[in-house]
């Protein structure tokens, strides 16, 4: 039950590290560590330089279908997420982080730092010529690893060419070409791929994918204790099939053959969330036990919102997941960043973050230049936010997406753009314009005749961005 006391163990370990690294600032940091979610201010004036002893390790954890309504730190009330809460309460979290309505294009944006209008050609396929976060950090001297759901096609060749030397993954190829779909042996007796081949059945029989990932992650960390590393842990959890975890008595007799969706049950979903959080706790414990706490930045986010089959309590209200929709329930995802000595603590609620921002932000964390020979990158860095230096000119003032809505027909797309107050859809989908601050559920589009002069200017500027995206895509 080690993970259940993780928060308290880490609190004291972190304070010791702060004493060594930031003796002159211990009072401020200690107080920040003890703050409750409801009392943390929007930002901290504290500025912390990255470790003078070298580049920090970077770990990016990607949940699958984990919307903003799931973690407790974000306002969720239906699930247990103590380790995610610890990361958020003792680090930075961004309430306004947005992915895309579906995972494949969101993951490609995250990897490349480019909007889908620049590089999306086929679902679950990362173009061989595209460079990624992995390439950038490997070229900068990082050891690189990828563990979990790949979902980007190409197998061993693609994973390595896109910057990851070590890997243990699920879905190494496009299911459309291999015959294996994403539901096949996802959790129990998992179909996992390593070093150009699937693990033998004898190795995975009776095992759970996340446990095998954890073992691989521990070995990867042990092998890279003396040099900087970059690791992506792309959880299988919490996507379908909703099935028992090893902590559930039903796990032992669960039939993991064939398509488990015919047997899945939503009653297992809370346990799946809890197990995901447990695995994150184990990873954090490993970092602590290895003495890497002060040398590591850990992030958690998700590829899209929660699926419609899930109802959760969020800040007192019942919320239905909205994956594959275009509203907040589909695209608003958690983002928590933890790294004592490297990251301040607080809520960054004045910053809009999207998936293209991770590559540029990781360049800042690693103290390396943003690549200039990879074509136009669309991300802005949020590393300044992590250091407590919020510069208005460096903040994104809007969220834009170019979403291929039909995997088999790339020209079938939906685009929209919004800021804190207004949202506009492309003309192909009605060109509807909303005041999303007053009309969160987008029930009352504003007619052109009813626009104020200020609203006309906003709508016009939004339209120009949408048209530019379609032009870049060649439509």
UniProtKB/TrEMBL annotation:
InterPro entries referenced in this protein's UniProt entry, alphabetically: Alkaline_phosphatase_core_sf (IPR017850), Sulfatase (IPR050738), Sulfatase_CS (IPR024607), Sulfatase_N (IPR000917)
Keyword annotations from UniProtKB, A to Z: Calcium, Hydrolase, Metal-binding, Transferase
Keyword field contains Ligase: no
Residues annotated as domain Sulfatase N-terminal: 56-366
Domain of life: Bacteria
Keyword Hydrolase annotated: yes
Assigned protein family: Belongs to the sulfatase family.
PANTHER family: ARYLSULFATASE FAMILY MEMBER, ENDO-4-O-SULFATASE
The protein's name in its UniProt record: Sulfatase-like hydrolase/transferase
Organism listed in the record: Panacibacter ginsenosidivorans
Organism classification: Bacteria, Pseudomonadati, Bacteroidota, Chitinophagia, Chitinophagales
């Amino acid at each position: 039950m080690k993970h259940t006391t993780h928060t308290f163990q880490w609190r004291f370990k972190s304070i010791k590290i702060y004493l060594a690294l930031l003796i002159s600032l211990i009072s401020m940091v200690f107080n920040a560590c003890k703050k409750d979610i409801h009392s943390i201010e929007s930002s901290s004036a504290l500025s912390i330089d990255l470790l003078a002893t070298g580049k920090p390790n970077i770990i990016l954890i990607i949940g699958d279908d984990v919307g903003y309504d799931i973690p407790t730190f974000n306002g969720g009330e239906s699930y247990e997420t103590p380790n995610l809460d610890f990361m958020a309460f003792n680090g930075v979290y961004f309430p306004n982080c947005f992915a895309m309505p579906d995972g494949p294009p969101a993951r490609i944006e995250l990897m490349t730092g480019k909007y889908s209008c620049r590089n999306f050609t086929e679902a679950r396929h990362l173009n061989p010529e595209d460079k990624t976060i992995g390439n950038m950090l490997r070229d900068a001297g990082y050891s690189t690893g990828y563990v979990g759901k790949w979902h980007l096609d190409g197998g061993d060749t693609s994973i390595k060419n896109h910057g990851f030397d070590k890997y243990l993954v699920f879905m190494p190829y496009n299911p459309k070409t291999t015959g294996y779909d994403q539901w096949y042996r996802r959790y129990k007796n998992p179909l996992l791929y390593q070093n150009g081949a699937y693990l033998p059945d004898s190795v995975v029989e009776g095992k759970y994918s996340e446990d095998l990932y954890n073992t691989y992650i521990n070995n990867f960390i042990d092998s890279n204790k003396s040099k900087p590393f970059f690791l992506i842990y792309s959880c299988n959890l919490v996507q379908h099939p909703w099935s028992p975890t090893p902590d559930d008595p039903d796990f032992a007799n669960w039939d993991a053959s064939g398509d488990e969706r015919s047997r899945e049950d939503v009653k297992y979903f809370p346990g799946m969330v809890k197990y995901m959080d447990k695995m994150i706790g184990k990873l954090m414990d490993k970092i602590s036990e290895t003495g890497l706490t002060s040398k590591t930045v850990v992030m958690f986010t998700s590829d899209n919102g929660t699926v419609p089959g899930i109802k959760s309590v969020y800040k007192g209200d019942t919320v239905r997941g909205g994956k594959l929709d275009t509203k907040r329930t589909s695209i608003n995802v958690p983002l928590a960043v933890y790294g004592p000595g490297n990251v301040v603590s607080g809520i960054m609620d004045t910053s809009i973050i999207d998936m293209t921002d991770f590559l540029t932000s990781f360049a800042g964390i690693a103290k390396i230049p943003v690549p200039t020979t990879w074509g136009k990158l669309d991300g802005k860095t949020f590393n300044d936010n992590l250091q407590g230096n919020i510069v208005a000119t460096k903040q994104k003032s809007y969220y834009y997406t170019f979403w291929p809505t039909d995997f088999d027909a790339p020209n079938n797309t939906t685009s929209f753009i919004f800021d804190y107050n207004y949202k506009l859809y492309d003309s192909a989908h009605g060109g509807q314009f909303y005041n999303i601050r007053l009309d969160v559920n987008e029930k009352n589009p504003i007619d052109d005749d009813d626009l104020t002069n200020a609203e006309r200017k906003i709508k016009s500027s939004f339209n120009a961005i949408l048209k530019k995206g379609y032009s870049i895509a060649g439509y």
